[in-house]
Structure formats: structure tokens, C-alpha cells
Amino acid sequence: MSSSVVMGDQLIARIPVDERGDALIDVRQHAPELRWSTLYAEPTGAYSRLRTGVLQRLRKARNALPPGYDLLLVEGYRPYDVQQRYYEDHCSELLERYGPLEPDTLRGLASRHVSPPDVAPHVSGAAIDLVLSDAEGNALDMGTRINATPDESDGACYLDAPNITDFARGHRDILATAMATAGFAAYPPEWWHWSYGDRYWAFTLEVQYALYGPVHP
Ligand SMILES: C[C@@H](N)C(=O)N[C@H](C)C(=O)O
Ligand SMILES: [Zn+2]
């Protein structure tokens, strides 16, 4: 399992944002060729929104896939209050599992799986959770379910985890190559989470500024 800087690290929070101002658009309307899972679909349609610059790169990633594969998109934009709820719920789960924890320890552990709202890339419309699919849109074996926690998957949710089959490794590698080719940054604890333009992206690619800050509708 890789040791990596997590989203809640102060190294990430310190990265400045030079807001580029790209619109947050509904990808289902602007790019009907892209496939969406219904896993996180909700009536407001927030989940299928992304910054225009992110959509542009998603198209590039799709074009970089070998024949016979496609992307199945799961969750893009997440409103601040939803992120806050995910974060608080996950912190409660961890406290139940491990007992009392120092605030910094809790932030570090929690942000392997859910970002603290102040730095959350989904709240900026800069992150997409997705899986590799076949050409018909059937999700392929990625080694764990999407959104598996490090605890439940024995760390197999980490992008470079050794404890998955060669079959699943092949699928992760195809996804990772296409996403990296298009300019996305991976989040090492989550094989399904990729971002462009947020603070974690700037950290990974050693860019001085993030391009997208939080969007509050
Ligand atoms: C909750 C999971 N799908 C996710 O998006 N995690 C990252 C780290 C986040 O909350 O930004
Ligand atoms: Zn994500």
C-alpha cells in the first residue's frame, strides 16, 4: 500500500487558488455521449455537474481508452453541505471503530476516504469518481467496490494496492493511463477518484496554484 499525502494534510490546505471561473455545467446535457451510473443520482442533478475544463479533459480521457472500453461516471459536483455530512458521518464511524482520537489524527484518517469540506475537490466541481466499463457501459472488475474504505477493503482501495487480482489490476491500469494522459491527478487512497484543477491536482502535478475553488450555488 502506498503511503501518500492525504486530502486533509496542511500541505494541501496551504495551496492557493487562482480561480479560473469555468462554469459548472450539467455534463449529461453538454456531453450526452458520456455514460453515468445511477448510483449517486439525486433529483437536483448536482452529481452530474463539472467545470467545463474538467469535462474537456474527460472527453480526452475517453478518447485515450483502448477500443472496447468506456468510462462510467459516478459522481462529480457535491454541494458543500453534502460533503460536510459525508465527512461528519465518516468521522463518527472512525470514532466508533477506534475510540477517541486527536483532531489531527481524525482528520488524517478520515480524509483517506472523505475530504474535509474546506479542501474538498468535489465541492469545486473539479473531481470525478468513475469506473472503467466495457463498450456497453457494464462496470468492470476494479478490485473493490467504488467507495470501499481502507478499513473494509484491507487497503485494496488504494490505486496501487498489491492485494487485487491481475484482472482487476489490468482494468485499473487502463483507467489510470487514460486519466493521466488527459491531465487528471489520482487520489492514491481511492482508485476511482480523479481530479483536474483542484488543490490536490496542483500538489500532485507541482503546479503553483489550484484553478478551481469551492462553488456555492
Ligand atoms: C467519498 C468518496 N467518494 C470521495 O469522494 N472521497 C474524496 C476523498 C472526497 O471526499 O473528496
Ligand atoms: Zn471522489
UniProtKB/TrEMBL annotation:
GO terms for molecular function: D-Ala-D-Ala dipeptidase activity; metallopeptidase activity; zinc ion binding. It catalyses: D-alanyl-D-alanine + H2O = 2 D-alanine. The keyword Zinc applies. Binds 1 zinc ion per subunit. Zn(2+) binds at residues 122, 129, 193. InterPro entries: A_A_dipeptidase, Zn_M74/Hedgehog-like. The keyword Protease applies. Its EC number is 3.4.13.22. GO terms for biological process: cell wall organization; proteolysis. The record marks 78 as: Transition state stabilizer. Its cofactor is Zn(2+). It comes from the Bacteria. Catalyzes hydrolysis of the D-alanyl-D-alanine dipeptide. Belongs to the peptidase M15D family. This is D-alanyl-D-alanine dipeptidase. It comes from Aeromicrobium phragmitis.
